[in-house]
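Hypothesis: this fold can be encoded by more than one sequence.
Test: take the structure tokens below, design a sequence, compare later.
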């Protein structure tokens, strides 16, 4: 299978809140919005998230527990200050991690954890797990 793009759609009753949150705090560009389904673009064309309210009986509301979206940024310390100064609460503190990043997490209106990080050199312990081919 040759996949040209991958994205995720999260079913929620908070479509408007999700749109407003990601536009305000993450600079998302709304590239589609029909009221019950939105497509948000982040930075490059290939970084998108979708949120939708269920339209069919088999489409149930998603639960954000256990779901994490990862956002790589240039300067995680600046983003941490910006987001916490705006009133968002870090549910994972800003810290260096031996697997090769410095990051923190907040939650969106759906309870999805948003891990915001910048790459760092991994410790010797984790360097062996990277496939650099």
């Amino acid at each position: 299978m040759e996949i040209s793009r991958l994205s995720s759609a999260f079913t929620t009753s908070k479509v408007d809140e999700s749109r407003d949150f990601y536009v305000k705090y993450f600079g998302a560009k709304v590239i589609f919005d029909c009221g019950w389904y939105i497509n948000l673009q982040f930075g490059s064309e290939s970084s998108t998230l979708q949120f939708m309210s269920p339209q069919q009986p088999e489409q149930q509301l998603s639960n954000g527990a256990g779901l994490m979206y990862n956002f790589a940024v240039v300067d995680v310390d600046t983003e941490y200050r910006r987001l916490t100064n705006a009133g968002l609460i870090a549910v994972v503190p800003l810290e260096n991690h031996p697997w090769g990043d410095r990051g923190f997490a907040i939650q969106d209106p759906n309870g999805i954890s948003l891990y915001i990080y910048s790459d760092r050199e991994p410790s010797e312990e984790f360097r062996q797990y990277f496939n650099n081919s």
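Residues 15-26 form the longest helix (12 residues). The beta strands are 8-11, 29-33, 37-41, 48-52, 68-72, 92-97, 101-107, 113-119.
Hypothesis status: open.
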